[in-house]
Fold these 3 entries.
Entry 1:
Amino acid sequence: MKKLSARRRHPLAAVVVLLLALAATGGLYAAFAPAGTAKADETAQSLAIEEGKKLYSVGCASCHGTGGQGTSDGPSLVGVGSAAVDFQVGTGRMPAQQPGAQVPKKKVIYSQAEIDQLAAYVASLGAGPITPTEGQYSPEGADIAKGGELFRTNCAQCHNFTGEGGALTYGKYAPNLEGVSPKHLYEAMQTGPQNMPSFPDTTMPEKEKKDIIAYVQAVNSDEADNPGGLKLGGLGPVSEGLFAWVFGLGALIAVAIWVAAHTAKAKKS
């Protein structure tokens, strides 16, 4: 008893007891809390997949197959990932109204919660690009000048160098990028929808994607400085070509008529 009392009066006794209490508390938390959290997350994910499968059966299975394997009316969705679903459904391109060379953007018919459920189900069919977080696609702090260089190198040949879009072959086209959200721009680069090539992080790192998004937003913002009136390249290649053809050819015809009229007067004189 005397030895025990002596140890209790030791200056380090309180510190030892405190450390033991903290260790016991930490051990109990590690043993119970993470497992409970993981189980809750797993349950929520399972519910999302279950609800997504119901939505898929009603709105998608007729074209993409009951298990996402694809049919003659729609491609396989195995391995496209949640990012592709979030882009296609979140921009209204899917469900498609009718088959064609390219599915246009239209009014979104699903809520974001339903889109997330559809994305969870399709992602469960096979690994693919994951829906990005706000930190990944936010253009805050990005290099706009670098984004312009990257855009002109990788995107301008189809989308026009200010993102106005343009015609492609066989009824296809590169859509106008004005007003497209940063999230959907990022997902399009990730997944390569329709006629667009994909730019995964191994090809184009996250930082470069953010730079491109910042550039597209800058050149299409209401505050963009266009001292010449209509911005250069702002009408798109088809409209600009038509303008050049009509007015350019019209000017040449006017000059030819003027030359012919003055030549005839000179001969009469």
Entry 2:
Amino acid sequence: MVGDAGSIHMRRWAAGMAGRGHVVEVLSERRWDDAPVAVELLPPFVRGRLNLPVLAARVRDAARRMHPDLVHAHYASSYGLIAALSRVRPLIVSVWGGDVEVFPRNPVNRQVLSFTLRQAARIAVTSEHLRTVTLRYAPGAPVFVIPWGVDEEWLQAPRATEPQGPFTVVNNKHLEPTYGLDLLLTAMAGLDRPWVLWLLGSGAAERDLRQEAERLGVADRVRWTGQVSPARVRAIMDDAHAAVFPSRRESFSVATLEASARGLPVIGTRTGGLPEVIADGVTGMLVPPGDVGSLRGALMGLAGDAGLRRRMGAAGREMVRERFRWADSLDQVLRLYHEVAAT
């Protein structure tokens, strides 16, 4: 595998494959301490990717040593490009989101992306939304939708009852502008009842968000945790009434599925892949992106109706159980691997 060993999702793929008995080696510019698989460090990316030939040569050399059945590169505009330039085949490229939604915003990047995708024997994406976007740059390419599922721990030991106390909302995304947490603060500031908001993450927007909470006069109701363990996220979710994801852009959302798995009703925006993981009116509510009024209305609807929260939470758990288990994701990837290796 060629990808970012510092990413939790990359680590899950590598460890999952190793757990199924496959020999996995990861090539990455970032370290993975105590990794359950072999990790070879690549030189850091140089600004402008001027060292792409060096990186591609390193991947090619590693393939000569290992004789892999296939190479799986994650994130088309970086590690995918390196693997494509290495000419190691067969190649599977996983598209993650920003690599096809943000990167190709100028003609040169669009050509680079199209080149990378054309080198792949198969392309894996996590949502139908991403499949549609990817095909813009590689018409007719073999694109397969394989969602990122959630681990079994998220479905185990559901809480028996809702917590008492103020209406409690949780968001477990990085604190980045694209996830619309400024909109969430504004929407919640207008609620006419006691509430608490848990923001479970860190990111470049944290300072601005803290300042916005102060400006809105709600800083005492916001809980900032920084990065926390999955077990801690589950514990906080079990003490919450709803999860809210007012993203401006979202290609998929494991965080949303994690909240549904814990039995929380979910509010999200009608953008990207979110409508594929939130059944509007069934497991949660979808609102227009950027619409604070609609977001506040959805919050008020959940805050005032415990029965609705219970029904949506139960439906969300069932949806995850049926469609978004991590073991099923691994099964789908392995089928793709066998298909590619056999050709």
Entry 3:
Amino acid sequence: MKTIYLAGGCFWGMQKFLDQFDGVAETEVGYANGPDEKPSYEDVCRSVGHAETVRVAYDEGKLPLEKLLEFYFMVIDPRSVNRQGGDCGIQYRTGIYYTEQAQLPAIEAVYAREQEKAGAPLAVAVEPLRNFFSAEEYHQKYLEKNPGGYCHIPPRYFTLAAQQKKEGDE
């Protein structure tokens, strides 16, 4: 099992989106790469420097990191600084926070392809994970508990894996 940390705007939608893919063993929302003290959600909303982030434990045999990152880039605006959809502030910045140096070649390959597609520099940070603090329990699997909750990710993306499987079965 490998772990990667993905900041892609509001962590509720990113968690729901990533949970659908075969090979994602576990996700947890939290706050990453800010000051070295555990923040509350209210602290993060006051722009203390943490990014809303999803910890993703994945089976690389079922879901290679490059494919996981391709999914990630599908649901973010990689050129947007501190904003995704209607959410703005430093906590909504985008970032790929890695835990192993061996992950860097896959990250760099996907990043280069995405930057070429965008035709301009990306606003997605690529850096080692400095810290991660689990978010409050009510944030975990939030959109499962609150199906009508706001999310910048269009709802059709939450069934992408099922759609792809159905198309493959036809």
